[in-house]
Design goal:
By secondary structure, this protein is mainly α. The chain is built from three helices and no strands.
């Protein structure tokens, strides 16, 4: 949850409201935040029973593919 709060408060708000300044965010933090958002999105869409299942298979496939891409980026950063 702290990671989502950081993503919202420190990153999103600065870009949304564009406060001119130098903004540095580590790639690792951004990738972890992306992974967390993807996991939550998948869980909410597939386990909450609040989404009509019509067409959800395609969305699940795309979200799963995005999760794999984020994991690969994290692995490549850790190896570097």
């Amino acid at each position: 949850m702290q990671l989502l709060e950081w993503l919202h408060e420190e990153i999103r708000n600065d870009f949304e409201h564009f406060i001119p300044k130098t903004l540095l965010a580590s790639s690792d933090d951004c990738l972890r935040a992306s992974e967390t958002c993807l996991r939550l999105t998948i869980a909410l869409l597939t386990k909450s029973n609040n989404v009509t299942p019509y067409g959800i298979g395609d969305l699940q496939t795309k979200l799963h593919s995005a999760s794999i891409s984020v994991a690969a980026l994290q692995a490549s950063l850790n190896d570097a």
